[in-house]
Structure formats: structure tokens, C-alpha cells
TrEMBL record:
Cellular compartment(s): Cell membrane
Membrane association type: Multi-pass membrane protein
UniProt keyword annotations, A-Z: Cell membrane, Membrane, Transmembrane, Transmembrane helix
Cited CDD domains: MFS_MefA_like (cd06173)
Transmembrane parts of this sequence: 20-43, 64-91, 146-164, 199-221, 227-248, 260-281, 287-306, 318-339, 345-367
Name by which UniProt lists this protein: MFS transporter
Source superkingdom: Bacteria
Pfam families linked to this entry: MFS_1 (PF07690)
Gene3D superfamilies hit by this protein: MFS general substrate transporter like domains
Major subcellular site: membrane
Length: 374
């Protein structure tokens, strides 16, 4: 993840420097999300049909090769975008296999705590990549940043090969083994269960508060900052999430679920303060507070995975992840397009207002679904 965030900073700076367009910079950033429109539904089911550890290793090897190709000097923006899409397509089966494997190792609240440790580690790595990204890109160039990202995929594959043992897949019926049958069964499971449906809706609130990441480069420019300011802005939200998840793990399991609604609203509300066009450090504080509340995603994700049968866990998680990533990609694209017409600070504030409304509706729906089952 350190390498991924370093590569994101490199691409955002590269495209904005070449074009001067907030819209094109946001499009490139959004391409790290949008391939899940296809990858989530079509490829996540592989985690229910093939050994999950081996699938993850294969995805790592392929992504190492593709990202290394992105570092070839003189590659056009179109070539970079195509390779980026291919890399992100492979993220779907990898993440689905990873999400399905963890509950097989740890169960109950141990799984929730393990998810917290995993997410905090991921946020710390994301934070490190964003904080150092701007400085490293400025010092060593975008190509070397991409090579570093390729190396991290190779390291991930080695860690899986030597550090994780293979586990047998759960038994499945003949009807659920086909690609279309698996996709249909997973979609029906998620859509027919009200709790799962609203958990997905709560997760998709991220589309509003993540949209700020696509505006980091133009926002930094508007406050007189350079590549280092881009990295600092991008680091603010994951830094807040890391602190929030540490605090959330100290809360009783039942209390975590009741906090999901208020925290989802709080993940967007601080962004409204950007309407005053504060300077860099006030903005960093607001974005960090947004991330602090966004830690509710830990409880939402754990509740979703634990309520899905193991035999369908890969496909169902892939569909939920698709909804999450697509909402993020659309949010980044919309914010980038609007930022070509209006000030980035105003666009961030608008995303905060809309996010509060959507979060309130999703929280109300989940509370109602939970009461019906009580």
C-alpha cells in the first residue's frame, strides 16, 4: 500500500503538471477506482472457486509486471491509463480472496479486532506513502516512484508465499460453481438482505469524503503549495482513520454498530467548513477529522463479512467492494469536473453537504433493518 499511494501521488502530479487541468488529474486518479465496475462482479467470484492464497500470489506477480511497464520512460498518458486499468482489475480478485481468507483464520470478535489491526496497518502504510510521496516524486521522479510500487507487489507475493498457508475452499453446490451462477447468487444475497443492503449504502458514503483526494493537487495549488502539500493533504484522511480505528477497537462490539450512523454523518460534515476557504493547515485538520469519523467503515465491513456465508464470501465482498469503489470513482470524477468551473474549496464543501444527507438516510435505513430483526 505504501507503493500504491506513492504511485497515486506520482500520477496526480505528473498529469496535473503536464496538462494543468484539475479534471484530467481527477480522471487519472479515478482510474484507480473505476475498473471495479467490471472487476468486482466479474472477477471477485474467483476467490470462491480457486485456492485463495495462490490467487493472491498470482495477482501480485501480474501487477508487479504491469506497474513496472508503467515506468518505461516516455510512455504516453493513454498507455499509462490502460496499464493502470489492468492493474486495478487485478485488485478485485486479490482483495476478495484476502477478505474471504481472514474469517477462516479468526472468528467472532477476534475477526473484528484482526480487521482493525489490518486496516490500521493499511492506513499507516497509506499515510506513509502519501506523506513521503510528494517529496520522493519531486526528488526522484514519477518513473522511479512507479518502479518502487512494482517492487512492493513482488514483496507482497513473497510474504504470502512464505507467511500464509493454503486453506481448503468451503463446499459449494454444483449450481453455484459457474461464473454466472456465482454472480447471480451473490447479487441476490446482498440485495435481498436489508441489513447487507444498508451496510453497502453506508460504505458508499465514502464516495463523498474520498472525492477530496482527486482535488488534492489543484487544492494545494490554490493555497500556494507544491508536491509536498499534495502529499500532506492526501495523508490527512488516512491519518484520521488510523486514529479513529484505534479508538473504535476499544468500544464494545454492540456499541460499534450503533456508532456507525453518527460517524458516517461525521465523515462528511467537517468538509463543509472548507466553504470558508481556509488555509492549508486548517484544511488538513478538517480532512483529518473527516477521516477520524470515517473509521466507521471498520465496523460496517466486519458486520458485512460476518453476515455472509463462507462459500459466497468472495463474490459478495467483491460486489460490495464494487459499489464502494465505484462510488469513490464517481465522486472523484464529479469533483474534478466541478473544480474546473468552481474553486476546489467550494466543491469540497458541496461534497460534504451531499454526503451528510446520504449518510443520514443510510443510517436511518440500517437502524430500521436492525430493529426488525431484533
Amino acid at each position: 500500500m505504501v507503493g500504491d499511494q506513492l504511485a497515486r501521488v506520482a500520477l496526480a502530479v505528473l498529469v496535473y503538471d503536464r496538462t494543468g487541468s484539475a479534471g484530467l488529474s481527477a480522471v487519472t486518479y479515478a482510474l484507480t477506482f473505476l475498473p471495479d465496475i467490471a472487476g468486482g462482479p466479474l472477477l471477485s467470484g474467483l476467490a470462491d472457486r480457486f485456492p485463495r492464497r495462490r490467487l493472491m500470489i498470482g495477482c501480485d506477480v501480474a501487477r508487479a509486471v504491469l506497474v513496472a511497464a508503467m515506468a518505461i520512460p516516455g510512455a504516453s498518458l493513454w498507455v499509462l491509463c490502460v496499464l493502470l486499468v489492468a492493474v486495478q482489475l487485478l485488485a478485485s480478485p486479490f482483495q476478495s480472496a484476502r477478505a474471504a481468507l481472514l474469517p477462516s483464520i479468526l472468528t467472532g470478535d477476534k475477526f473484528v479486532l484482526a480487521s482493525s489491526v489490518s486496516n490500521i496497518t493499511g492506513q499507516a502504510a497509506q499515510l506513509a506513502g502519501f506523506v513521503t510521496g510528494g517529496t520522493l516524486v519531486a526528488a526522484f521522479g514519477a518513473g522511479n516512484a512507479l518502479l518502487a510500487d512494482a517492487a512492493t507487489f513482488g514483496l507482497s507475493g513473497l510474504l504470502l508465499w512464505f507467511g500464509v498457508r493454503e486453506r481448503a475452499l468451503p463446499e459449494t453446490t454444483e449450481e453455484s460453481k459457474g461464473w454466472w451462477a456465482s454472480l447471480s447468487a451473490g447479487a441476490l444475497l446482498v440485495w435481498s438482505d436489508r441489513q447487507l443492503r444498508y451496510l453497502v449504502a453506508l460504505a458508499c458514503v465514502a464516495g463523498f469524503y474520498v472525492s477530496i483526494e482527486g482535488l488534492a493537487a489543484p487544492y494545494a495549488a490554490s493555497v500556494g503549495g507544491g508536491p509536498a502539500a499534495v502529499g500532506i493533504l492526501l495523508a490527512a484522511n488516512p491519518a484520521g482513520q488510523m486514529i479513529g480505528m484505534l479508538l473504535l477497537t476499544r468500544v464494545a462490539p454492540e456499541r460499534r454498530l450503533t456508532l456507525m450512523g453518527p460517524l458516517s454523518i461525521g465523515s462528511c460534515a467537517p468538509l463543509i467548513g472548507c466553504v470558508a476557504e481556509p488555509g492549508l493547515w486548517v484544511t488538513v485538520a478538517l480532512w483529518m477529522l473527516s477521516g477520524l469519523c470515517a473509521s466507521y467503515q471498520l465496523a460496517a465491513s466486519a458486520a458485512f463479512v460476518m453476515n455472509v456465508p463462507d462459500a459466497q464470501r468472495g463474490q459478495a465482498f467483491g460486489l460490495a467492494r464494487t459499489a464502494l469503489i465505484v462510488s469513490q470513482g464517481i465522486g472523484v470524477l464529479a469533483a474534478g469536473a466541478l473544480a474546473d468551473r468552481w474553486a476546489p474549496a467550494s466543491v469540497v464543501a458541496a461534497a460534504g453537504i451531499l454526503g451528510v444527507l446520504v449518510a443520514a438516510g443510510a443510517a436511518y435505513g440500517y437502524a430500521g433493518a436492525t430493529r426488525r430483526l431484533a
